What does this fold into?
Amino acid sequence: MASKFHLAASFDDRTQELSLDAGSSWSIGRSADNTLVCEDKAVSRRHAMVQQLQPGKFYFIDLGSRNGSSVNGRRITMPLELRDGDTVTCGGTRLTFHDRSEGSAAKAPVETDGATVVLYSRRVISVLVVDIRDFTPLTQKLDEAVLAQTIGTWFRQSGTILRQHGASGDKYIGDAVMAVWTHSSENPTAAQIYPILQALSEIEAFTRTLHQQFPLPAPMRVGAGINTGLSIVSNTGPQENPDFSPLGDTVNATFRLETATKKSGFDLALGRTTMECLNGQAGLSQHCAQHFEKQSVELKGYDKSVEAWFTSFDKLQDFLRLSRPQQK
It folds into this structure.
């Protein structure tokens, strides 16, 4: 059966089809560990990726490649949704995106080759959203090629850090990255929250150094929100390679918490349940009180104010240094 979604790659002497029906992300580059390997000297080792953010919605993301990427002749600086027939150019390699779904995204889930296409379950997750601060002014000051390489490099390195700290999935949305940790129990421990905080600290530290690599007008800054709670988790891939996508209030609130940091003057906001997980370990309560400030905040779309705990990145680093929880 022909793939509903696929990329057709045209090389000098051959063509190759990459199916996008199973999975959530596909890497493109010269290195042999990519999903699509391009033997093209103009293509970087880790040039770009295609990511499925929602069923049937595929985005092309340049990962800071040296020679850049374009879609339909236009240089890419941010993730761009692909449409049927779009032509993607990576170096000297041409890719064409094909959508043969014929509106299948609106149809009821079906089973194909014995693999369940869509499953739903309730899981406890922690969500991290990291957003680039003052991104619009930055885009107005930077050359398009510099912007594309800067943001692509930020996406690539952020994804590497998140995976190193156990994120079960990461997605790039505009000028933000969202990562998810799926917990095995209904009551996550401080030891399960700690890697999320560590990942954020490393992303922030890396972001501050980007101006040393690229001619930026000032060091880049980020803000973040972390939230923990129940979520409906859908599996849109085959059973042997699940692609979990969380839905619901836990995810929405995380984005709202990140937005709340802009008004508060802080860098990071934690949701109530996330803070309860940290406070649940003996000896951490005092450190939490010293490094996080409790506030009642109004979140867009919520009828009532919610409790959130705010801190700066400097205080987060101190917290991580002083309060590493015991692994059980």
Summary: The longest strand covers residues 119-132. Residues 57 and 81 are 7 Å apart (CA to CA). The radius of gyration is 21 Å. The mean pLDDT is 86.
